[in-house]
Structure prediction request, 703 residues.
Amino acid sequence: MHFAFSRRALFQRAAIATFSCAMFAACAGSGASAGRATSGAQQVAPQAVWPAPIDPQVIRDQDDMTYDDYTPIPGVDWTHRDSKGTVKTLHLAVVTADFPDQPFVMTLPQKSDMYGNPQAAPVRREDIPKFFYDFYMVPNALNHGHTIYDYWLEQSHGRVGVVTRTFGPYRMPGKSFQYGINSPADLPGGYAQRNLGRDLDSLIKADPDTSVRAVLDTLQYKPVVRAFAGYDETATWQEFGEMKFQTTADIPKEWGNPDASKPRAVRSRYGAMVPWEAAKWPWSNAGGGVVTQGESINSIRHELGHAAFLIGDNYNNPFATPYRRAPVGPWDLMDRGSFNGPGGPHSRWKVPANAGGAMAAGLVLRQRMQFKFIDSSQVLMLERKSLAASGLAVAHVMTRVVDPEPGAVNGVHIRLDSTKVPGSDTLRTDLSPRDDPGTNPLSSGVPTWSFYAVEVVQRIGYDSFEPDNGVLITKNKDHDRDGRQGASFGVNVGGPNSYAAYVWAIDAHPEDINVVDFTRPNGEKVMRSIADYRQLNDALFHAGTNSGSACEWEDTPNRLHFYIVDTRKTDKGILDYTIAVRSLDGSGPHTRGVALVAGAGSGDAVSFTLTNTGTAAPFTAKHATKDPLYFAYDVYRLNVSVAGSGWDAALQNALAAVRFGASQPVKVLLRKHAGAASSATVTLTATSESDPKKTVSVTYTVK
Prediction:
């Protein structure tokens, strides 16, 4: 399934913005010895470079993670708090049901079924409802101390919790495959397709315990989870299909259709031909306040996003052509971040479901604002046109899993106001050129994006199972359903309207990550397709030089430039990035200026003092955030050179954001090689990004 694109070709196809060499220099390094760190799929920290990065990109692959990767949020323990939220509590009803041909996997002897499950000691059928309650709601060894309610409390910062009641178990009237097989032609002779929800509702209505119906009929208990015995097709079709059998001819009788007159392979919902056994299962889903899922897949957090907050999916089908890049990949619950967790996505077949999707991603800024988990007072709210009037904006952005400290925010939101398309009278919000995803797998589709968002991801809490720490930049739509979904479950149909992503990550590394997905039975390596969500494992931006990533992003058509200026950790270990956003069409009424003074130096470093000599001026702008302190800055690009045989000079950070009238130190690092000259002259240059004519250079001689 590997889609071969050269790195150069992928960069050329990134149509909406630029990674020019001049722009990238601030991230890559500055000075005689500073070169850009190798980009790509780094599974470990960047190799030793000089100078050492202040914010290295260190990618952890999902397949390699274990529960030991979990890092608690400093000072916060949502699991051992009351499961109710301060604003809203979801009252969840879990109704359990098995089939005449499929008992609950958890009732079987350990590792006894054809999938190698259950992984834990069995439980009695009558105890299945209690098992689900304990697994979802009680911190224990099987769930590794993590519950449904601690996820929603964490994402909402305590505002939304979950309480649960469990019911059953019920015995379905039809066999398991009658509720899951995709085509009636693939059913064994004499069997017809059945509707799981309709049949289960009939069983509940016929239950002599009328209190069950009374509970489920109340509006108090919504959503309802139909927890059925066995597996979910999304967790078996590949792992027990092409990963287990080389060809369909290799499928043995026990994995094929029980009707020997029919083929042993059938078409899965993802399109591939797979063993009948692996494709017969229902597919987890949510709609109308009801969630349906099997024992093997712990996607309940994702499905509750649908059922409780009425939001659609934001993912693609990575196995269909023409390939479409994942919208936001591992960074959000409503995309394939629902697969995050120990062991990676190919471990979601395990029962109990404490691998793979058991530790789902957090929610991106757009979702957290839509769900009212944070409000606009916690976000720097900007408007594109107004940035030209106000000048650039600078904010301290703290990781998304905590409330920001005073003076900081949880993100930056830049509204793409309605603007004339250059050369026409057409009004559009997103001015990106149209790009056909039928021919470009990196296309974000029809340019109908509403706003940009910038946020910080830190590998703590549920985000411990993200692949990186850093800054996530996304384009977003106001609505998650706009009529452009090509088909159910994200099947690609080609052309500019093939599927409707509503959050789109800007990828700091758009080139192919070039990582093996799995190995076929004959030893053949299968690479992750260009559409695989893990292509975005290295998407985050980082501060400073030599990080292995980028520290800025320019969207030329939309007239915006983003800077990841600096990073620090608070005393509690919380990431805090300095983020700047600038309009390419104006820098406001402020007077811009810059000064540099050389300080002390030695054989290892020279210190300089950078001063913003500009002055602020009143301005009128339509930003929702009015505080002028966000606009009382300039951003400076720094460059260093050295004259002296055998000497190197470099910067760990080639960007600086300084308030009007304020100063900050700049350290230039030096390196002297054997046989070097006895002295060297270091030249540091600082240039205003708002007004490049305001530039200054200062020299210092080191002896």
In short: Confidence is low (pLDDT under 50) at residues 1-23, 30-45, 482-498. DSSP finds eleven helices and 28 strands in the chain.
